[in-house]
Amino acid sequence: MVEIPTQADAACIDSFVGERLEYQMGWEFIMAGTASLHVGRDAKGHHEYITARTNKLFDVFKKVRDRIKGSGYCDQQGQWRSTKFQVNQQERRYKAEKLTVFSPNGSLVHYTQNNKTDDYPVTPNHLQVLDAFYKARSMPMALGSSFSIPVFDSRKSYDLVINVQAKTVKIIAPWGETVACIVVTPLLKTAGVFSSKGKIKIWMTHDARHIPLKMSAKIKIGRIMGYLTHYQAPPPP
């Protein structure tokens, strides 16, 4: 296995600002709902947004109404820095509001859930998971390689290991073109939208954009699939 060192792009998330990804989510062979991701920016830095919801049919089994916002910035040395991660989660009878705030010097995280705040020591290079997702996309992903990104999520601080399979596969993109994709498996230790923690596969275009065309997540019963239905590219610089 080839090891690729973690490295930040000089422009950090700039190449993704304005991008929008929209997915059709399915449970096995049943269309379960939709999810979207997009990236914006203001004077304080960049912001990533996720919204996810089940359709009326799947609401009977597991109603999902999730909203997630991640925030961060790129420092003068070109390093990714996270500032905040907000989760408004409604999944069946489970409801939660979670807020993760990174201290200005990056040595501490304040995590609040259900009006209770706890502090956790971290290092300045720890990222919230959405920053980690976009940082991974900005990095070179050689076939058969592996790398890690330090993350903090849901009271856990760990190195998110990302493996890239040795072969590419062909997938038809939403714009009608058949493209070569790499298959990426991030080893998450916390639960995500529509899924439990565990094994996830992401099929990304085998180019500098690493557009996620397809996703698969194992859950207790079956698996959740995500298929990209609409891609809005970032505007030209």
The number of domains is: 1
The span between the termini is 36 Å
Q: How many individual β-strands?
A: 16
Biggest sheet architecture = 16 strands, mixed
Describe this protein with a few key phrases:
16 strands; disordered N terminus; 16-stranded mixed sheet; 237 residues
Provide structural commentary:
The chain is mainly β and 237 residues long. It has one domain. The chain has 2 helices and 16 strands. It has a 16-stranded mixed β-sheet that branches. The longest helix is centred in the middle third of the chain and has 10 residues. The chain is globular and about 45 Å long. The chain starts with a strand and ends in a 5-residue tail after the last strand.
Blueprint of the fold:
Blueprint: E1 2-3, E2 20-27, E3 30-42, E4 45-54, H1 56-62, E5 65-74, E6 80-91, E7 94-102, E8 108-113, E9 116-121, H2 129-138, E10 145-153, E11 156-164, E12 169-172, E13 178-186, E14 200-205, E15 212-218, E16 223-232
In short:
This protein is 7% helix and 55% strand. It is mainly beta and 237 residues long.
